[in-house]
Each structure stands twice: as C-alpha cells, then as structure tokens.
Amino acid sequence: MARSLLVSTGSILSSFGLSVYVFFWFSRIETSRATVAESPAEKYVGVAACLSCHSDKRAQENSRHAKTWKLPENSRFGRDYQATIAEGSANPVRYQVQGKKGVASFEVNLTEAASSETVRVHSVLGGDRIGDSFILELETLQGRKLPHPTLIEARYMYSAETGKLVKSPGLSFEPPENFETALGRPLSSRFGTGQHCFRCHGGTVRPNPQEPLRHPDFGQVGVHCERCHGPGRDHVRAVKEGSAELQIVHPGKLPSADQMKLCAECHSGLEPEPSPLPENLLISSQAAALVRSECYIESSGALKCVNCHNPHLDARPDDPTYEQTCRGCHGLQLTAAVHCPVNPEKACIDCHMPRKLTADHFKLVDHWIRVQEQVDVPFRKTSRPTESRRYFLRMIAVPTESQIRDIYSQVTKGASFAALARQQSVDPSREDGGFLGELHSDQMNRTIREVASTLRPGQVSKPFQLDREFALIQKMPEDFDLVAMAQYRKGWELFQKRQLDQAIKRYEAAISIYPHLVRGLFHLGVAYGEKGWGEKAANVYLKAIKLDSNYAPTHFNLAQLHVRQGRIDEAIQSFKRTIEADPDTTAAYLNLGTIYAANGQLEAALGEFQKATELDPLLPSAQFNLGLALLNQQRYSEAIERLELAVAIQPKLAKAYHALAEASRHQGDTEQARRHLKRAKELGLSVDPGLERELGLVP
Q1: What whole-number distance in Å separates Cα of residue 374 and Cα of residue 366?
Q2: Which of 206, 313, 397, 596 is the most exposed place for a label (fewest CB within 10 A)?
Q3: Do the domain assignments include residue 520?
C-alpha cells in the first residue's frame, strides 16, 4: 500500500467550528479487471480436492503464496512472542505486540494523553521475504463501541530482515497524535468485502461491514489453486463425467494480455496513479511496472510474468531463467537485437532490474526494466532507427510547403522544436509544444508511422505532406520521460523545503519535456495554489483531469480551489467527481457535509458525515462533525455517543468537549456539562461565556 508523498494540505472551515484537514498521499497504481470472476463459496472445493489429482503441484502448499495470510495461532506471533518499540521523544507513543496460546495483541500507549488501547490481532499478512503485517479488528475504543467492527493495518509490522518491529509501508513518519494514526491504517469497508487485502492474500471475508469477519467457506486462508484457476466444483464434476469441457481456467492457455491481467489483480498495487515514477511501483506493483517497460511493449505480449516465475514455487534470486529470458530477445545470436554494450551475456538483472530501497526502507526488485538513470551507456545517444510498437513524437503541421521548409531550416539551426510548434503549428497539439502523447503503431496514421520508423531518438524528420498539410515530426529521446521525472523529483524536494518559486520552475521544466506528465501537472497545481495563483492552478488541474479523469486528488484539489473562490456549486460537483473516482475519499464526504451545513441543509450534511464515519470510524473530525450535526438536530443522546467517540480517538480534541458540554446541558446533566467545559478550557479553548455562566463556572 503505499508510497508516502504528502502532496496537498487544505482546510475548509466547518460551520460547526472545526477545520477539516485533508491530506493526500500518492499511493495509487493501475489495476486490472479480474480475469477469474468472483463466485459463490459453494462452487469451491478446496486444496485437498485439487491435490487428489494434481499431486505434482503439492509444493505450492509450502510456497509464500500459500502462507501469505496466517491466523495468529499458526504464526510465530501466537506463541510466547513479545516485541516493543516507541516513537517520539518528548511524549513517546509506545507499542507492544504480544502473543501467547494462539492469541496475539497489538497495544498502543499514548503517553501524553495517558491512554492505552489493546487490540486483538485478527490475521497476519506477509511472509519470510519482507515480513509480516498485522491486521487488527477493533470493535470498541476506550470502552466505547464503534459503529461497526473496523479493520486496521497496524502501524508497525515485523521485519524479516531485522527480526524487529518497523513502520508499515506508506504510513507517515510523523509521531501520531491520536488513536487513528497510532493504531495504523483503518481499512474501508471495501477491504472487508473481498477486495484488496482479502482478495490478494486469500484471507477471511465479511459479507458486509456490519457482520463479523469469518473464514471463507472454501478451502484454506492464503493463495491456493482456486485463486488463479477459479472455482473447482464444476471442474471436478466435468472430470468425473469425462467431459471434454473441463470447466476450469488454465492461465497458461489464456491470451498474453489476460495472463498479465490475472497477475495484475494482485501485483498492481491498490489504486490508479497517474504517470507513476519507477519508485512508486516497487511495493506489490510488479505487473504495473513490467507493462511500462519497453521490453514488454516491444515483445507484443511475449514477455509475461511466467517467463521468469513459476506461480507454484517461490521466486529465487539466483534463478537462471531470468537471464535466459533476457537473452531470448537480446542474445548475441540475434543479429537484429539490441545488444547490451556493458555485458551482453550476463548480469542483466543486477543492472536492469536491481533491488531498490523504498522510502520505507524495504529492498524490493524494480520490475520497470530499463537502463537505470544513474548509468551512462552509449546506445542512449546512438540507437539506430527502428520500427517500434510505441512512439513518443512531437509534430508541427502548417498549411504550406514553404512554411514547413522555413521551420525545418530554423530547427536544423538549433531552434526549439516545441517553441516553434506553439508559435506556428495548426495541429491541436500546439498547446503542448507539438507533443502527441503515447502512440501505438497499430493505431497511428500510416504516413506518420512510416516517417517515425526512419528516425533515431531525438531526430527531426524532413518535411513531408500529411493529408492537406505539411509537417515535421521529432522522435522523443529514449529517456525523455526519465529526464522529466528527474526534474519533477527535484521540484518535489524544493516544494518540501517551501522553496515554491524554484519548485515551480522544476515542475514547469518537467512538463515542458513531458507535457502529459499528469503527476507533474498535479503538483504544479498544488504549488500554484500555495502561491495564491488560483486561476493558474485551476487551469493546470483541468488539463490533468483531461488527461486522466480517474485520479481523485485532482478533482478534490480543484474543489478546494472553487470553495476558496466562492464557486460553491462548482465545488460540490468537483467533490462529487472525487467520490466517483474514488469512493473511499473520506475528505470529500466531510467537505460536502460542511458545505451543506453552511447552507442550512442539515439532513444532507448529516448524510455525508455519516458516510465519512462508515468509511473511517476512527477519523476524529468525522465523528466530531457528525456529533455536531446531531446536536443541531437536537438528537442529544446520539450526539453524545459520537462526540465521546471523537475524544476517545483524539483525547485532546477541545472543541468536542465543548460540544459535549452543550449536549449534556440540554439533557439536564449539569455536572457532566461542567466537567466537559472545564476540560475544554484546560486544553486551551476559548469557551462560550454564556454557557460558562449558565453552568455556574464563573460569576
């Protein structure tokens, strides 16, 4: 999961007096539709039935796939295990994982708030290569029942390399301030209905968020035969009846694209992410990285995961199959192949697919096969013209031959192709300096394809006629995207240091090199917004949305801009589009609720706050805003329940104590109201003087 780049913070002042702070992390990577359809549990027969005929696949039962989901009693953590760790200096948050007699627990102690919580470890995900993550199931917090049982990926996991507790991938390195962040990452209801964690690790299921977790009715936890081959009941029946139709999925006989989709169901991360960087595709994103490799694209589907990996066995770091696969396309015996100028016979993997250290300090293999950025090799600059299956081109098109010849003369003398395209081209691509985007040969204009196939990377064609116009094209350099990404990275580093002007220059440089770098456009919009350049930010976001309308954070940030500009109707629509793109965007529900409340639409506000708490019951601002909405509707008992949960999650949430004082006063519990108001004052809140007098706390 994830991949922790904090890219945008924003706030919309709630009509109830609480600012809803919104954070976004890039943690989104392309996923594919399932090849093996979900089926009712009764259609599964379990591992034993499969092995009764396919005993040659018995080794799969001892593979990492099979052991990727464990119950505590079947793991090291259920047997006399104890580990502790603390983070923070002044008021450290202390953690302890403890196991005994098949039961494991995860304890968090918020020292500053003098509060602790112990949660049962429901399941253990992972294995002996990277480590084990703990899935917690929380039903009550500080003695208060949650709206529904909540699954949490614990903040700390067990590292196979060190044997100690380490931070789970993608979580903030900032010390936690409340139980939501201290416990870890609450998982939305989608994780409990068979998606994400459960589907890929083969774990327990929950038919709906209100029901407790249960074990699947089919077979064992972990990834086994029927995860990839589909349910086996009809297959067993067909075999017994001697039917020619075996009624089972045979992945090896699927078309290449479908084989990749099957692997990509679990090895393409969690959510779509625009123009990802290679480092964004390290954690559980091997398929997403591979399909971006030139090797995969030029193989026309011949390169697949199973060329190197036997899905029934564990991957080995020294498997000779890896380099055999490389030499199958790049071997010296192939005269038409591109041969590696460094070592054409061996050591392919160490150079082109090295193990890399993630931001969370895990070493993972980089499956985006390429010449690594830090390596300087001759063929980057001298590649011969080749007919490719994919092209990146710029184009200038003008009405007359004399005009294109004049432009060609300027380009050959060193003028910028992109600048001339913006100034003189009549093609719609002029806005992007003539950049045409990613083009696949089977979908290209025939004339453009034929000209492009004669060009070396970076080379400009001679003028040619294109229908009724005259044109030039430039083939982009082989590593133009990586060069743009390097500019983007530098911009991000500067942005984190709050050097906004310098960051903007780097982002703009990245986009001038790669105009469709959606990630760069998004961050440029963030930087423009930070400078107060609202219209420029909005235009950049709109361009990013045009290129990728499925990325929720872009819609969200555009909505925030609309709010600041007072364009509330447009903000509402953008928040709704955020939710369409990603229904788990809790912040969008919160901000919609805030807008509705400000407009006096309390029922609508209540509905949005309710949705936010269903997605993340441990989000204190969601429980607080829902409590205030209920308080405004004079539903005092329900309001108190939500407000008490808010302060249980975040013990120093002063405004929640103030609201509790109001609710308690309305219920006639003056003593409780006094205690709550005193606590609000202790936490530094300026309280309502009228309420203070009414409760007898001041003369």
Answers
A1: 14
A2: 313
A3: yes
